[in-house]
Amino acid sequence: MTEIDANIDGLVPAWLTLPDIAEQLGVEVTRVRQLVKEGQLIAVRRGENRALHVPADFIKDDKVVKGLVGTLTLLKDDGFTDEEMLEWLFTPDETLPGTPAQALRENRGTEVKRRAQALAV
What we know:
The model has no long low-confidence stretch (mean pLDDT 92). The protein has one domain (3-119): Multidrug-efflux Transporter Regulator, Chain: A, Domain 2 (Orthogonal Bundle). The protein has helices at 3-11, 18-25, 29-37, 68-77, 82-90, 100-105, 109-119; strands at residues 15-17, 44-46, 51-55, 59-60, 63-64. The chain has seven helices and five strands, in the order H-E-H-H-E-E-E-E-H-H-H-H. The radius of gyration is 14 Å and the shape is globular. The chain is 51% helix and 12% strand. By secondary structure, it is α+β, with helices and mostly antiparallel strands. Residues 4-59 form the DNA-binding protein Rv2175c wHTH domain.
């Protein structure tokens, strides 16, 4: 496990495997892989078998959390790596309050996107 992995592992409260997500979304695992490839979800290798895992907070009510895809696109456009995006999304911000990932789950995506855009300045 690299240093950034340990840091992210400490920030992200729960993880799901791609088959878990496929089951929740009611799609094939290949579709989940496609979502990761397209940048609509972030998956990282973790655990002993280095399987791909996605933060559980990215899925709510059997769907990808509203506003997540747009936020990931903004962060990617700002030059963030997947690890940096996860770190930003799961680092508590008392001015939000909570983490950007929590704010997205609570349908406060407009504020999260505004902050993501501000990072580009």
